[in-house]
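TASK: fixed-backbone design
INPUT:
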C-alpha cells in the first residue's frame, strides 16, 4: 500500500505581509500593486493554477506542476516591477523570507515522511490491517473501530496516512458492499481530520501554527473534546445507515519485519526531541526532527550490518528479506506534496507582497471580527485546501487571543471534512476506494458533517471560554 503523509492542502486569501519586510540586508519598503496589471495577472495565474490542482483527479496532472510554474511567473512579474522602480532587492528579500518559512516545514515533513515510509517497509501498517481482518468484526463494529483508530492514530501518523490505512481495511472487509465502504470512508475522513486537529503532528496546518510559535505544544490538546464532538456527531447519525451484517473473517497473518517496533520507538523519541528543542531550548522543531533522523540512520546502519539474506518463517520455509536502506525511505517521500507546498507558499507569499492578503485580512479580521473570519476559514478549506489558508493567516499574524488561534486551528483542520475534496485524506480515498467513495456520496452527508462542525466550534467556545 502506497502511504503518503501528513496531511495536506487548502487555500484562501487571508493574511498580511508587513509593509516593511525585514531581511538580513536591511528593511525595504513595499509597493501597493493591488490595482495594477501585475496584481490582477497574479490573481488570475494563481486561480488558474489552483483549478488545475483541484482537477488532478480527472487530468492526472500532478498538483505540484501548476503551482510551481505559477510561483515562478508571479515573482518574476513582481521583481520586474520593483526593478523598474529602482527597488531591486525588496522582492529578493521577500522571496528569501518565504523560502525560510518553507525550508523549516520541508525538513520537518521530510523526516516525518521518512519514518512513516520506514514503518510501512517494516510492515507495521500491514500487520495492523491483518489483525483487524482476523477478528471477524461486524460492519457496524468495523465502522466504529476504524473511525476510533483513525481519530487516535492520526495525531501521530498524520491524517492522510491514517485514512489510507483504514480504507485498506474497509476495502478488504467490505468486498462488494458499496454502502458500507462509502459510509465507512466518509467516517474515516471525518475521524482522521478531527484527530489531526488537536495535535501539532496531526495535520500540516497544526504543525505550521506550532512551528511559528503561536501556540505552545501542550495548548493544542485543549482542542481534544471539540475534536471528539466533531467526529462523534456525524458518526452517530451514520451508524444507523451502516448495514448490520457480519462479514467473513480473514485468516491472513502479517509478521512485522525485524526492527519494526524499535523504529516506532525511535519515531516517538524523535517527536519528543523536536518538542524539547522547541519548548526548552527555543530552537526550531525542525532541528529536533533532523536530529531524530540521525537516530534512524544509525539504527538503519545496524540493521544493514546485521542483515541476513534468508530467514525461516513460521511454517519452516525459507524466504528472502531485503536489507534496510534509510536513503530509500527518504527517496520515497511524497515529493509531489513537498513541491506543491513550496509552490503554494511562494504563490501566497507573492500575493501577500502585492497587497491582496492585507486587503482580505482587513475585511475579514477587522470588519467581520475574528470569530466570523475563523469560522469562514474552515468553510473555505472545504472548498479548496487548508495549507494555503493557514499559511496566509500566519503571514498576517492577526492580533488574536489564544482561544481564537485555537479556533482557527480547529476550523482549518476539520472544515475540510464537509466535502471530499476539502482534505488530502478525502481526495486520496476517492482514488483508493475504486468508485465506492465519491464526491456526491460524501456530499449527501454534508449537512450532518456541518452540524458536527458547528457543534465542535460551540464546544470549544464553551469549554475554553477563559481563553477568548
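OUTPUT:
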Amino acid at each position: 500500500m502506497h502511504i503518503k503523509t501528513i496531511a495536506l492542502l487548502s487555500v484562501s486569501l487571508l493574511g498580511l505581509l508587513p509593509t516593511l519586510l525585514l531581511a538580513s540586508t536591511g528593511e525595504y519598503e513595499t509597493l501597493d500593486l493591488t490595482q495594477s496589471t501585475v496584481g490582477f495577472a497574479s490573481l488570475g495565474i494563481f486561480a488558474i493554477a489552483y483549478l488545475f490542482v483541484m482537477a488532478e483527479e480527472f487530468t492526472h496532472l500532478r498538483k505540484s506542476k501548476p503551482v510551481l510554474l505559477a510561483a515562478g511567473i508571479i515573482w518574476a512579474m513582481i521583481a520586474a516591477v520593483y526593478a523598474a522602480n529602482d527597488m531591486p532587492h525588496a522582492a529578493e528579500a521577500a522571496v528569501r523570507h518565504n523560502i525560510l518559512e518553507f525550508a523549516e516545514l520541508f525538513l520537518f515533513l521530510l523526516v516525518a515522511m521518512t519514518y512513516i515510509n520506514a514503518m510501512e517497509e517494516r510492515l507495521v501498517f500491514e500487520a495492523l490491517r491483518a489483525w483487524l481482518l482476523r477478528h471477524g468484526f461486524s460492519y457496524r463494529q468495523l465502522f466504529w473501530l476504524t473511525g476510533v483508530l483513525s481519530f487516535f492514530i492520526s495525531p501521530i501518523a498524520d491524517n492522510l496516512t491514517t485514512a489510507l490505512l483504514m480504507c485498506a481495511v474497509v476495502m478488504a472487509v467490505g468486498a462488494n458492499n458499496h454502502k458500507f465502504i462509502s459510509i465507512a470512508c466518509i467516517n474515516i475522513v471525518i475521524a482522521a481530520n478531527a484527530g489531526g486537529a488537536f495535535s501539532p503532528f496531526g495535520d500540516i496546518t497544526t504543525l505550521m501554527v506550532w512551528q511559528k510559535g503561536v501556540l505552545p505544544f501542550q495548548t493544542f490538546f485543549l482542542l481534544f473534546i471539540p475534536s471528539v464532538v466533531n467526529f462523534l456527531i456525524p458518526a452517530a447519525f451514520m451508524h444507523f445507515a451502516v448495514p448490520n451484517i457480519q462479514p467473513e473473517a480473514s485468516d491472513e497473518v502479517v509478521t512485522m519485519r525485524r526492527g519494526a517496533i524499535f523504529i516506532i520507538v525511535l519515531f516517538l523519541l524523535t517527536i519528543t526531541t523536536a518538542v524539547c528543542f522547541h519548548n526548552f531550548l527555543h530552537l526550531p522543531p525542525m532541528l529536533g526532527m533532523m536530529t531524530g533522523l540521525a537516530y534512524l540512520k544509525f539504527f538503519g546502519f545496524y540493521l544493514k550490518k546485521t542483515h541476513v539474506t534468508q530467514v525461516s518463517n513460521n511454517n519452516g520455509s525459507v524466504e528472502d528479506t531485503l536489507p534496510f536502506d534509510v536513503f530509500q525511505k527518504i527517496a520515497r517521500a511524497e515529493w509531489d506534496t513537498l513541491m506543491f507546498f513550496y509552490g503554494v507558499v511562494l504563490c501566497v507569499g507573492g500575493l501577500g507582497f502585492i497587497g491582496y492578503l492585507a486587503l482580505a485580512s482587513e475585511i475579514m479580521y477587522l470588519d467581520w471580527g475574528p470569530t466570523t473570519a475563523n469560522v469562514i476559514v474552515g468553510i473555505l478549506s472545504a472548498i479548496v485546501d487548508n495549507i494555503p489558508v493557514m499559511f496566509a493567516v500566519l503571514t498576517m499574524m492577526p492580533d488574536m487571543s489564544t482561544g481564537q488561534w485555537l479556533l482557527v486551528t480547529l476550523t482549518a483542520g476539520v472544515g475540510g471534512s464537509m466535502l471530499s475534496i476539502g482534505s488530502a485524506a478525502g481526495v486520496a480515498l476517492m482514488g483508493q476506494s475504486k468508485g465506492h467513495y465519491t464526491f456526491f456520496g460524501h456530499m449527501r452527508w454534508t449537512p450532518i458533517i456541518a452540524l458536527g462542525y458547528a457543534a465542535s466550534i460551540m464546544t470549544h467556545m464553551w469549554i475554553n471560554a477563559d481563553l477568548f
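COMMENT: Strands lie at 20-23, 26-29, 310-312, 318-320.
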